[in-house]
Hints:
Blueprint: E1 3-8, H1 13-23, E2 29-35, E3 48-53, H2 61-74, E4 79-82, H3 85-93, H4 109-116, H5 118-127, E5 135-136, H6 138-142, E6 151-154, E7 165-167, H7 170-183, E8 188-191, E9 199-206, E10 212-223, E11 231-236, H8 240-252, E12 257-266, E13 271-278, H9 285-291, H10 295-303, E14 311-312, E15 319-321, H11 323-333, E16 352-354, H12 363-375, H13 379-387
Parallel strand pairs: 1-2, 1-4, 2-3, 10-14, 15-16
Antiparallel strand pairs: 5-8, 6-7, 6-8, 9-10, 9-12, 10-11, 11-15, 12-13
Helix pairs in contact: 3-4, 4-5
Amino acid sequence: MAVRVLLIDGHDRRSLAAVRSLGARKGEYEVFIGSSRRINSSRFSRFCSGFVRYPDPYTRERAFIEFLSRYVESNHIQVLIPMGDSLTELIVQNMNSFRGSTEVLAPEIETFNIARDKSQTLKYAQECGVPIPRLYSLDDVKRGRVVEYPLVIKPRISTASRGMKIAANRDDALEFYNEVDSQFQRPIIQEMIPDVGEHYQANLLFDKHYVLRASCVKKKIRQFPISGGPSTFFKTVEHNGIEDLAIKLLESIKWVGPAEVEFMVDPRDNTPKLMEINPRLSATIRLSCFAGVDFPYLIVKNALGEETDLVRNRNFDYYCQWLIPGDIANFLFNKDRFRQEHGYFFRRPDNFCHMTYDSNDVAPFFYNLLAYGISMIDVRKLARFVKR
Length: 388
C-alpha cells in the first residue's frame, strides 16, 4: 500500500517541490497538502492526493494542534512533514500530540531551540570550533570600545532577514538596537562580513540516531532583499570545508531531520563564517531534487525507520531560479542587473530548473501567481517585503 504523507505549510514553495518529488514516485506515496490558506500552489499539483484546510496556527495555536492530531490519526497519515520554521517549532513543541499516530523526523525541543535561537547557535559553534563573525555587546557600543563598523543588528529568532538592520556608526547602532529590541528581545550585534563575501548553504539530513543521511551544498548568486535575504538564483557547488563545518556543528547538538546551515566566506581571511542554522527543510530543495539529492523521499524513509545510504551531491553547477517574485524583485532593485553572468530571462546556464514552474505540472505555477496577486492587495505586506 502507498505511504500516506501530509505536508503542512502547503502554501510554501518548498511544499510544491516536496509534493512533486514524492508524488512522482507512482504508487509509492499518497501526498496530502495542509494549509490555512485556500489558494496555494501545492494543492493544485497533479501529484497532490488531497487538501485539508486547518485553523490558522498563528492565531489559533491550540485549535490547530487539536485539529491536526485528529486529522493524522483518522486519515492514517504515516509521516507528517512541517515545512517552515514556525510550524516546525510548533510541531516539535507539541510532539506528544502526535506520538503513536504518525512519524515526524525532527529533534527534541531543546536541540531545536539551539538551532532556532541565533545566540545559542553561535555559542555552540564557538564551543565546537566553527568560525563565527565577531560579536559585540550593547555595552561595547555604548562605551565606545573598539568596534568596527558597519555592524549587523539582528533578532535572535527570525526568518528571511526579517528585522535585520545595518548600522554604519555608533548612533545608528544604538537607535537600531532599540528599534529591533522593541519587537525582538535582546538582538545580536555582530560584525558585518563585507558584501563581496560569497554566501553558501549546506543542506543536511540526519536520521533518528544523529547519523548523516544526505548533504548538498549550494552557492547563492542572487538574493532579495539585495542586502541579505532568500536565494533567488543559486547553484550546487563542491565545498568540502563548509560541508564539514556544517556536519560538525549539527552532530555536536545531536540534530535529527533536515536543516540548512548558512555561511559567508570572509574575503579578509578567506574563512567561512557561520551565519545561522535554519532548523527545517531548505527553501532551495527544488534544486537538491533536480541534482539528485531527494530530501523529501529520504525524510519519509528515515522517519519510518528505514535506514538509507548516505547521499552526497556530486552534480555541481546545477542551477535554480526563483523567478516570481524573488528574482524579478532582485532585477528591479539591483543596480548591476545588466552585468550578471547569467541573465534573469535570457542567457540561462545548462542544467537549469525553475523553483515553481514545471512543464509536467503547470497548474501550480499559475495558482502561485494568483496567490501572490492576492497577497499584494495588502499594501502593508508589500511595503514590508520591499523595505526589508
